Amino acid sequence: MPATPLAERSAVHAPDSVPAPRKRARATWPVVAVVVGAIVVFAAHFRPWEGGLYEEWTLARYWQLWGGRTTFAAFAELMLSRPLHLVPTFTGVAIGGGEPSGIFVVMGLVAAGQFLAVLWALRPISRSIWINIGVALVIGLHPLWPGGFLQRFLPAQTSILALLIAAGFMIRWLQQGRARWLIGACLALLLGFAVYQGPAGVAPILAIVLALTVSAGWRRKILLVVAATASTVVMALYAIVIVRIVVPPERASYELMNLESSGAQSPSEVVRLVGGTLVGEGRPLLLGIFVVVALGALLSLTRAIPYTAGWLMAGVALASPVCAFVYFGNVEWLQDIDRVGFAVALALSVALLIWPITAAARPRRLQLAVTAVLVAIACAGAAAGIAVWQPYLHVQQRLLGSLAPIVHETADSDTVVVVDYSGTFGDLLTLPNGYLSGASFIANHDATNVLICYPPDGSHPVPAGNVFCDPDTLAGLRSAGDLTMPGGTVDFYVGTVDEAQFLSGTG
């Protein structure tokens, strides 16, 4: 009889000490948990009853007026620096038959895809399916990034999915050394960047983390880091240099227009703006950094992961704000907590992946307890993230509901003017002039033009993109009702308005 390894001989000859029903239960519960987890992540992002909130109002309006092909072509040149940026959003609008609610279908599928992609990526290397599920839930529910529950960040969510798929390819490249895995990783990164370049600062860090935690030869590790970094550089060169050469200056892409008009002037300015954003609005993110550092310390001190892995988790967490530097092209982006939070939270997700990759078999109970705590935090954070946007949706729905009977009774040639004495509307989240007509068109199924202005007494600050009301213009309009808000009244007027003159602030 040929010799067999000890482990194999034990498996063959040892008596079955675990009853068959218990074995089946052990095999079934993880499958149930995966299915439930995917459903939970999908459901958290699938909220079609909310309608729209941001640019999706206008995109859906154009889709219904011009048709899908013409609308996509109209935005294609503007999005040339990230050519696939609007593909997920327009896919959702198409699913919804021109309604922004269809975007939520794609959001749910992408988020559930992230959850499953984490499990797939970790499958060849992790010891515990339960830790994998816990980490996948944290990434899929992104408790530190409320913006991920908004339709406008569907492209960003799609780029995360591409990054996670690339992570799976990277792990398999390190383990097997087959070129197809490395090529797949680069293609996944490039496709993700073509949708949204936000992960460009995280991708090289991901490659370094995997190179330091997955057992492989140094040649494979070096090639992985070089390939991931090169993919990032290639996309940056395309977006900033090649597009500038191909497209005439008068038709510059969105990124180039921002970079040339409002880009950060120096690295120190980027540091100052990102730091100010985190301190001013990003305290949950700072707490998240602390929690990941503490988790790395706890796991390494209890020998659940090696000491080096604990240090690496802490290092990636502390360095996570650096990933927000990808937004240097616009100083306003560097002060936007949703964008900065995206980059920081994604980097913290990479730090969290170190745990299942390097986890030891013991102490099992401690690791499962920590996993349960993380899942609870993720679910609570997701609920809080969704709740952040509900007040804005509520006030939008109140305004659109009040406009419905007015726009239906208004002649096609007339315009409805909203005079906001309450200081409630007209901000980015509360229907400014760029979104108001589109929102009314979609919600009320009426093409009547709707504009908003503020009383000239200066009782409320005028949000960007809005104007003071000109008394002479209002004098030529007829009153059409009002809406009472906590801050005051909102009056509605109907009549003939020169929109260009109105928006210029001269009446």
Summarize the structure.
This protein has helices at 6-13, 20-45, 56-66, 68-76, 87-95, 103-122, 129-141, 154-176, 179-195, 203-213, 218-246, 254-262, 267-281, 283-301, 307-319, 331-334, 337-358, 364-388, 390-408, 433-444, 471-475, 499-503; strands at 415-420, 449-454, 467-468, 478-485, 488-495. With 507 residues, the chain is mainly alpha-helical.
Written description of the protein model:
With 507 residues, the chain is mainly α. The chain has helices at 6-13, 20-45, 56-66, 68-76, 87-95, 103-122, 129-141, 154-176, 179-195, 203-213, 218-246, 254-262, 267-281, 283-301, 307-319, 331-334, 337-358, 364-388, 390-408, 433-444, 471-475, 499-503; strands at residues 415-420, 449-454, 467-468, 478-485, 488-495. The protein has a 5-stranded mixed sheet with strand order 3-2-1-5-4. Helix 3 crosses helix 20 (433-444) and helix 10 packs antiparallel against helix 11 (218-246). It is elongated. The termini are far apart.
Write the layout of secondary structure elements.
Blueprint: H1 6-13, H2 20-45, H3 56-66, H4 68-76, H5 87-95, H6 103-122, H7 129-141, H8 154-176, H9 179-195, H10 203-213, H11 218-246, H12 254-262, H13 267-281, H14 283-301, H15 307-319, H16 331-334, H17 337-358, H18 364-388, H19 390-408, E1 415-420, H20 433-444, E2 449-454, E3 467-468, H21 471-475, E4 478-485, E5 488-495, H22 499-503
Parallel strand pairs: 1-2, 2-3
Antiparallel strand pairs: 1-5, 4-5
Number of E-state strands: 5
Inertia-based shape: elongated
Order of adjacent strands in the largest pleated sheet: 3-2-1-5-4
Derived from helix and strand composition plus strand pairing, the structural class reads: mainly alpha
**Spatial separation of the terminal alpha carbons:** 97 Å
Count of runs of 4 or more consecutive helical residues: 22
Give the DSSP E fraction (strand runs of 2 or more residues): 5-15%
The chain-level mean pLDDT equals 89
Q: Which sheet architecture does the biggest sheet show?
A: 5 strands, mixed
Radius of gyration: 26 Å
**Which residues form runs of ≥5 with pLDDT under 50?**
1-16
Helix content estimate: 55-70%
